[in-house]
Amino acid sequence: MMLGAELTAHLGYEEGKDAPPDQPNRRNGSSAKRLKGQDGELPIAVLRDRDGSFTPELVKKGQTRIDGIDDKIVGLYAAGLTVRDIRAHLEDVYGLQVSPDLISRVTDAVLDEVRDWQSRALERMYPIIIFDALRVKIRDADSRMVKNKAVYVALGVTRDGVREVLGLWVAESEGAKFWLSVMTELKNRGVQDILIAVVDGLKGFPDAITTAFPEATVQTCIVHLVRHSLNVCAWKDRKAVAADLRLIYSAPTADQAAAELNAFEEKWAGKYASIAPAWRRAWQEVIPFFAFDPAIRKIIYTTNAIESLNRVIRKSIKTRGSFPTEEAATKLIYLAIRNFEKGGRTVQKWFAARNQFAIMFDERFNA
């Protein structure tokens, strides 16, 4: 632990090794000490030396409190460590013997923060909201079996180009009823208009969006559509298929895109018959893309914001085989979102896109 490292630095030799010939001072066991923290007293072992010259910096002589332990626990939890890992880390590094109950109490306090965050007031209008899903293994409360559950995240872009995670929802079922409840929640929190909603072909979602926000343009996520297409390709064909798909979504007009899709189907139908029909099934949610200026298209297509958010979340949850409850998953994902939002939140090259939004959507954007 760090106290041991401090004593090693003070004495000039490692524990268990011979002391230098000119060093008369030696280790002299430890004394028990109890420090007061935010959640009660914590036992700690303070190392000693024979001549009493060792003055630790981590826990100073006479110190009776250790502040910030809650932040340390929450930070470790946010990094994906389990309760057992956190206990071991605090004992190894700080010499603190922390009970599992204390760690659970500290991390459970995050749920209050989640509830406040999930119910906070939102902007009246969002030019873009991107809806995306993550698959997380969660133990079902009734069957006690581990199930793959979908956790949905909504990432909005404000009028000023600031990325804001609007909320997260663990889905019991994926259908119009669930999505309508999400849309209703956003409306109850103050959202009156969505200009463009980007989705991943989720069943019942477009209807739920237009029911709650009749004027919203529903756009299929082009990145996801391309990925789904490439998933059925042999590795050696992916580069060529991706290049031909790019001719579709980079076309200047919807008519030209349709012509490129016909050409794609003629070329690849014999080998990959499912790709073109998948694009045709989603076509009504693909074609709005072609009405937008390249400045807006780039933001919709690249979805860098949601991709970087997903990377942060996956990094936190990858060490967990599964979560015991939905609350445990929610806590960790929320903390990952909180870390994500500490970084740069402004969409790159937003100024050009904002001007296009102001022209295309006029009163809705400027109201």
Structure description:
GO terms for molecular function: DNA binding; transposase activity. It holds the Pfam family Transposase_mut. Residues 13-35 are annotated as: Disordered. This protein has 15 helices and seven strands. It has 367 residues and is α/β, with parallel strands linked by helices. The chain folds into two domains: 2-114, no CATH class; 125-366, no CATH class. A five-stranded mixed β-sheet has the order 5-4-3-6-7, sandwiched between helices. Helix 2 packs across helix 14 (326-341). It is elongated, with a radius of gyration of 28 Å. The chain starts with a helix and ends with a helix. The relative contact order is 0.11. The mean pLDDT is 81.
Number of strands: 7
N-end to C-end Cα span: 59 Å
**Roughly what is the average pLDDT, rounded to an integer?**
81
- What spatial order of strands do you see in the largest sheet? 5-4-3-6-7
Number of domains: 2
Task: Briefly note the structural class of the backbone.
Answer: alpha/beta
Radius of gyration in whole Å, from Cα? Answer: 28 Å
Order of helical and strand elements? HEEHHHEEEHEHEHHHHHHHHH
Q: State the major sheet.
A: 5 strands, mixed
> In one word, what is the shape?
elongated
Helix content: 40-55%
Strand content: 15-25%
Q: What is the helix tally?
A: 15
Structure keywords:
367 residues, 7 strands, 15 helices, 2 domains, alpha/beta, two-stranded antiparallel ribbon, 5-stranded mixed sheet, Mutator family transposase, transposable element
